[in-house]
Amino acid sequence: MDYFPIFCQLKDKPCLLVGGGEIAERKARLLIDAGAILSVVAPSFTPQFIQWQTEQKLTCIKASFSVDYLLGKWLVIAATDNEQVNQQVFQTASEKQIFCNVVDSPEQASFIMPSVIDRSPIMVAISSGGKAPVLARILREKVEQLLPTSLGVVADIAGKLRSKVKQHFKSITARRYFWEQFFADKALQAEIEAKRDNGIEQRINQLFSATLPPQGSVALVGAGPGDAGLMTIKGLQQCQQADVVVYDRLVSDEVMALVRRDAQRIYVGKQAGFHCVAQDEINQILINEATAGKRVVRLKGGDPFIFGRGSEELEALIDSQIPFSVVPGITAASGCTTYAGIPLTHRDYAQSVRFITGHGKGLNDAQWQCIAQKNQTLVFYMGLAKAAFIQEKLLSQNMSSTTPVAIIEKGTLACQKMIAGQLHQLSEMAKTMESPSLIIVGDVVTLNEKLQWFQSKK
Ligand code: SAH
C-alpha cells in the first residue's frame, strides 16, 4: 500500500492554501465544502476568491508565502504555478510535520487527493497513487453510474433511524436483516427519489412491521472447480449474504475470498493426516446453524449434485423442516476439460459422455463392458488412487491400449497441470499427479494439442 486512505474531519480546522489562481480555486472549493477555516496566501487572486472572501468563506492574504503562515495549520495545499514556491511550501510544511499536497506533483506531496464521488454522507474515493489519473477517472465514472444520486439521502435517513432500529430489533442478525430490506426496498427508493416525506415515513413504518425475525435457511451452493470466475452470480450472491459458510477442501481460496467478510467460516474438509468431518456431523452443523436463525451457505466444489453428497445433506434438512435452496455449479468434468482444451463431445469422436466415480460402490463387469465402449468420453472423478484398477478394467474389456488418456490436476486454477498419454500408461501417469485430479479417457483428448488456450504450451 503506497498511501494510507483516510477521510479527514476538517470542519472548523485552520488550513492553508498557497496560490490564488484557477487551479487553487478547485482546491479551495473542496476545502470550503469540508468546512475548513481556510486562509489563502498569494500575491494576487481571481475574482472568485474575492467573492468567497466577501461571503466569509475564506480569508485572502495578499503576500508571498512564508513559514509564519503555517502556524496552527492542520493541512496545507500548494497550488501555485511556480514550482520553486510549491517546493518551498512542501519542504517547510514537512519540517513542521504538517501534511502537504502539491498540485500535480504527487512525488513531492505528503498526501494526495483522490478522485471523489460525493453522495454525502456516502463518499467514494478512488486513487491510482498518482500513477494513472486517467484510469482513476474512468473508474470513478463507472462507479458513479452505479450509485443513485439519492444515495446520500438514503444514508442520512438510515443514520437517523439507527437507534430506533437498535431498540426495535434485539439481535444483530435481525438488525442486519432489516437494513438489507431497507436498502433494497424499491418502494422506499421511489418515495425518496420523489422527495415525498409522508410516503417515506409510511414505507419505513411498513418495513418495521413487515420485517420478521429472519428464519434460518441453507443454500447448497456449487463453487465450481476452482477459478472463482466460474461461480454463478446466484452463488456469489448467496456467499455475500451468508452468516455462516460451511465449506470443504475442494473450495478454492479464490472462491473463499468472495465470501462476506463477517461470515463465520466452518471448514469440514479432509486434511492430510486427519479424518474428515463425518457426514452426520456436517448435517448437524447445518441444522444447528439454521435453527439458530442463520443464513447458512453449504459451499461445495464443482456442482453439489455431482459426486457431492449434496442430496444427502438436503434430506437431513427436510427431516428438520429447514428451508433450503440449491445453486448448481460448473462440475469439474466440464470446467477442467474446457480449460485443458478437451471438448467432452465431438461429432467425430464421442457422441456421449460418462461421469464415473473412481471411488465408492463397485461396478460389475457388465457395467465395465458398457463403460469401455467406443465413441464416448469417460471422466473419472476421485480416480487418481484407483488409476491402475481403472486401466486394468478397461483393458480387460478390450479397450485399445492406445486409447488417449489425460489427467488434469487442480483444473481451472493458475496452477493447473495436465498430462496426456495412452491407456496402457495411465497408472504410471497417475503417480506423477496430485489430488484433486480428473482422469479423461477417449479420442477427444487428442484435440487438446490444437485447442489448448489456457496457459502457454509447455
Ligand atoms: N462435486 C464436485 C466433485 C466432487 S468429487 C464436482 O462437481 O466437480 C471430488 C473429485 O472431483 C476429485 O477427486 C477430482 O477427481 C474432481 N475434481 C474436483 N475439482 C477438481 C479440479 N479443480 N481439478 C481436477 N479434479 C477436480
Features:
binds S-adenosyl-L-homocysteine; 17 strands; five-stranded parallel sheet; alpha/beta; 458 residues; 17 helices
Which structural class do you get from the secondary structure elements? alpha/beta
The gyration radius over C-alpha positions equals 32 Å
Q: In one word, what is the shape?
A: elongated
Q: How much strand content do the residues show?
A: 15-25%
Averaged pLDDT: 91
Helicity, in percent? Answer: 25-40%
Which stretches are poorly predicted, pLDDT < 50 over at least 5 residues?
none
Catalytic activity: precorrin-2 + NAD(+) = sirohydrochlorin + NADH + 2 H(+); uroporphyrinogen III + 2 S-adenosyl-L-methionine = precorrin-2 + 2 S-adenosyl-L-homocysteine + H(+); siroheme + 2 H(+) = sirohydrochlorin + Fe(2+)
Protein name: Siroheme synthase
GO molecular function: NAD binding; precorrin-2 dehydrogenase activity; sirohydrochlorin ferrochelatase activity; uroporphyrin-III C-methyltransferase activity
Keywords: Cobalamin biosynthesis, Lyase, Methyltransferase, Multifunctional enzyme, NAD, Oxidoreductase, Phosphoprotein, Porphyrin biosynthesis, S-adenosyl-L-methionine, Transferase
